[in-house]
UniProtKB/TrEMBL annotation:
<dbReference type="Pfam" id="PF02311">
    <property type="entry name" value="AraC_binding"/>
</dbReference>
<dbReference type="InterPro" id="IPR018062">
    <property type="entry name" value="HTH_AraC-typ_CS"/>
</dbReference>
<feature type="domain" description="HTH araC/xylS-type">
    <location>
        <begin position="162"/>
        <end position="259"/>
    </location>
</feature>
<keyword id="KW-0010">Activator</keyword>
<dbReference type="GO" id="GO:0003700">
    <property type="term" value="F:DNA-binding transcription factor activity"/>
</dbReference>
<keyword id="KW-0804">Transcription</keyword>
<keyword id="KW-0238">DNA-binding</keyword>
<dbReference type="InterPro" id="IPR003313">
    <property type="entry name" value="AraC-bd"/>
</dbReference>
<dbReference type="Pfam" id="PF12833">
    <property type="entry name" value="HTH_18"/>
</dbReference>
<keyword id="KW-0678">Repressor</keyword>
<protein>
    <submittedName>
        <fullName>HTH-type transcriptional regulator NimR</fullName>
    </submittedName>
</protein>
<dbReference type="InterPro" id="IPR018060">
    <property type="entry name" value="HTH_AraC"/>
</dbReference>
<keyword id="KW-0805">Transcription regulation</keyword>
<dbReference type="InterPro" id="IPR020449">
    <property type="entry name" value="Tscrpt_reg_AraC-type_HTH"/>
</dbReference>
<dbReference type="InterPro" id="IPR009057">
    <property type="entry name" value="Homeodomain-like_sf"/>
</dbReference>
<dbReference type="GO" id="GO:0043565">
    <property type="term" value="F:sequence-specific DNA binding"/>
</dbReference>
<dbReference type="InterPro" id="IPR011051">
    <property type="entry name" value="RmlC_Cupin_sf"/>
</dbReference>
Length: 265
C-alpha cells in the first residue's frame, strides 16, 4: 500500500479544518488497499484512468470525472500508469447534504479550481481557517449540485476476469479477442463470456467499447488530437471512432474536446 495521501489522524479527525486537500504526483503506479475513514473523500486524477472500488461499486474513472466516497465507506483505488492525482477530505458533519452512496461526478471548472487552490494552500502551509471554510463551501455546493453519472465502467470481481480488465485498462487499444484473453487468464472463452455479463451487466465487446470511449473522453479532455486518441483507443479508422463516439455521447470528439471543463479552465 502506498503512503497515505494525508496523515491518518487528519482522515480520522471529526474536529479541525472542515476540509483537507492534497495533490500528489509520482513516477509509479499507486495502489491503495481497502480502507475507510471518518471523513468523506472526493478523489480523482490529473491524467489517465483510475480504478476505484467503493462499497458495492467498482468503476474506471477518467481525469474529467471524480469519485465521491461518503464517510466510513470501505474503498480502494488503483492508478493505471504513474499517479498524478488529488483528494479532498471533508469533515463528516459537512457531508450531510452530499450523496449518501458513492458515485461518479463530472468535474466542473469551479470545483477543479477550488481543489487545486486548496491543495496549493495546504502545500504552502497556509492555515487561514476562514479562507479554507470559504473554499470548502464552494466545493460542497458544487458536489451537492452535481448529478451522479452512469457513464463509468463496472469492474468484474472474479479474479481472472479482473486480470483481463486491468490489462485492458492499461492498454485500451489492445485488439485481442475474448478467446485470447480467456486463454491468457486461465479460463474458457464460454465461461469468460458468461461471467462478464453476470458481473458487469455488459458483454465483453460492449464492456471493452465502453472502456475505450471512457479512455478517449479523458484523453480528449487533456487536449490529445482526435486521430491520436482514436488510435490509442483501438480504432484503425478515425471515422469509425467518430461515429461510435457521437452515437454514445451525442457529439463529435472534436466538439466534446472543445467544451470539456478541462479545456475551458
Amino acid at each position: 500500500m502506498d503512503d497515505p495521501l494525508i496523515a491518518p489522524r487528519w482522515a480520522e479527525a471529526r474536529q479541525g479544518p472542515v476540509m483537507c486537500a492534497v495533490l500528489r504526483r509520482s513516477g509509479r503506479v499507486r495502489h491503495t488497499r481497502e480502507h475507510r475513514h471518518v471523513r468523506g473523500q472526493l478523489l480523482g486524477t490529473e491524467t489517465g484512468l483510475l480504478t476505484v472500488q467503493a462499497a458495492r461499486h467498482r468503476w474506471i474513472v477518467p481525469a474529467s470525472h471524480a469519485v465521491w466516497v461518503p464517510p466510513q465507506t470501505l474503498h480502494a483505488a488503483h492508478s493505471h500508469g504513474p499517479f498524478a492525482g488529488w483528494s479532498v477530505y471533508l469533515a463528516p458533519e459537512a457531508c450531510a447534504a452530499l450523496p449518501a452512496e458513492p458515485c461518479v461526478l463530472a468535474l466542473t471548472p469551479l470545483l477543479r479550481a477550488a481543489v487545486g487552490h486548496a491543495a496549493h494552500l495546504a502545500a504552502d502551509g497556509t492555515t487561514d481557517p476562514q479562507r479554507l471554510e470559504r473554499l470548502a463551501a464552494v466545493m460542497l455546493d458544487e458536489i451537492a449540485a452535481s448529478t451522479p453519472l452512469p457513464w463509468s465502467v463496472p469492474m468484474p470481481s472474479d479474479r481472472r476476469l479482473r486480470r483481463i480488465a486491468q490489462a485492458l485498462c492499461d492498454h485500451p487499444g489492445d485488439p485481442r479477442p475474448l478467446a485470447d484473453w480467456a486463454r491468457w487468464a486461465g479460463l474458457s472463452s464460454r465461461t469468460a463470456s458468461r461471467r462478464f455479463v453476470a458481473e458487469t451487466g455488459y458483454s465483453f465487446t460492449h464492456w471493452r467499447q465502453r472502456l475505450r470511449l471512457l479512455h478517449a473522453a479523458g484523453r480528449l479532455a487533456e487536449g490529445v488530437p482526435v486521430v491520436a486518441v482514436a488510435a490509442e483507443s483501438g480504432y484503425r479508422n478515425p471515422s469509425s471512432f467518430i461515429a461510435v463516439f457521437r452515437e454514445v455521447f451525442g457529439t463529435t470528439p472534436g466538439q466534446y474536446a472543445a467544451t470539456s471543463p478541462r479545456r475551458r479552465r
